[in-house]
Fold this protein.
Amino acid sequence: MALCMLLSVFSALPIAASAASSGQCDNDFDTMNDRNIIVIADGAETNITDNDTLNSNPVFADNRIYYYSARNIVSANIDGSDKQNIFKEEKQGLTDNFVVDTNSNGGRRGG
């Protein structure tokens, strides 16, 4: 596993000592298309993504991680399994500036 420069950390997972980050893995800060999502939980680091696509803004909600990838929002289990695109098709104009809106019971609204 390549050592990645962690760019930003978000923590909201109800598991002790958990965080997610968008990491720059090739140390070329002039490129944006190769940032990957990394989760650190229980002292272990897990690469959620490993590709040449901009993956950014990881957010924890409903015991899942949500992140921006290729004009879509992806939802996955904390270990990276069960990845699902929120939208059926890419959304032109969609950016990584999104918020996961949950209801009072902890469930995701809309989709």
